[in-house]
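Trying the structure run again after the queue cleared.
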Amino acid sequence: MQTYKIKFEKAAQKFLDKQPKPQRLRLYKAIYKLPDGTDIKKLKGQEKYRLRVGDYRVLYITDNGIKVITIENIDNRGDVYKRL
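Done. Tokens:
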């Protein structure tokens, strides 16, 4: 397995910081399994991917050249796609 560096954008980190500890740990566990996580789909017409963690969605971009995953946004299912 290749190791990727995980980088959080400001909006994603802010959302994680506001979550209760059990939910925050659940999201971190799913994020740190990337890029081999489960329930991942590529968004149509974009270079972004989404990871589903319960009712939450994690939007991210993978740069395979420098092995960096940038977590752009995390939010509830209905709200995360409004900011694309």
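The domain at 5-83 is CATH 3.30.2310.20 (YaeB-like fold). Worth checking whether this holds up in the mutant runs.
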